[in-house]
Amino acid sequence: MSTQFVSNVENTINSRMRSARAYTVRRFAFHMFDILTGGDDQYQMDDHDEPGPIDTSVLTEQPRHRSTLIREERYSPVQFTEHGRKLNRWQCEHPAVLELLRRAGFYYVSRLRRLQLDQSLLGALVERWPRETQSFHLRHEEMSITLMDVAVITGLPVDGRAVTGGGSYQWAELCGLLLGVVSQDIKGGEIKIDWLYQQFHDIPLDAPPAIVRATARAYILFQIGCSLFRNSSGNRVHLKWLPHLEDFDLCGGLAWGAAALAHLYHALENACLRGKVEYCCFGTLVQIWALDHLHIGRPEVVGPQPTLVDMPLGCR
């Protein structure tokens, strides 16, 4: 077999391969052009009259979603509330109480300064939160708040035993046992958040150990009611959390961060529905997460602060 013949065969094969590749690329380009210009009805975004997903096999609750109100020109923004001022007002500095907060897993979140909630930012996010996927549907991707975000931003423990509720208690007796004083305004197992502040915010440095323990429990309960697990009452917190605070070391072994994230998901699921005008949730967590990941409208970032290098992101 001559060398010239082999060379001609190789040239022919290479030429056909190049032609095949070129044909494949051209065919792919024409196929994509057909899709984008109307060759496939599934992708005709401009001709789709109704807002929301074209394929409703996943997002089945779109008719109940608040984003449909924009199309109907009946949209009213949802108002997010969080007792940020109350939390910032009660900055616990008692050394013995802070040590108990460390053992209970609440020290870092006690250092978290609450922000003034950006209602426009939170409203834009909740408009993009479908209940079915529990993620924000953004222009080019989906994003969600994860356990890692909770740990990095708040410092709450995200692994450990589950935080559970339930149980039957005599609420006044439980309140007196673990707080040392009984509220005269217990309704449905709930007490006023302001009552906790009035009773425990200013204890002396030489307070007895029993008072210190009660203050630590009251402060954690205050954090729970103001932000972490805020309920629809707005100014009350349930005493069902108190049994978890009896032993501070056991309390520190609970996955409080995971529970807070589950509660936040539930809050966002309700806030994204039509007809909601006000909702309570851990808004500081959502806002810091958004500013850290999305960068849209983010204020100027201050340079690193050496004294806060070991603190969670939300404290810096």
Automatic annotation (TrEMBL):
It comes from Ananas comosus. One of its GO terms (biological process) is meristem maintenance. The gene is LOC109720367. It holds the Pfam family PMD. InterPro entries: AminoTfrase-like_pln_mobile, MAIN-like. Residues 105-305 form the Aminotransferase-like plant mobile domain. Transmembrane segments: none annotated. This is Protein MAIN-LIKE 1-like.
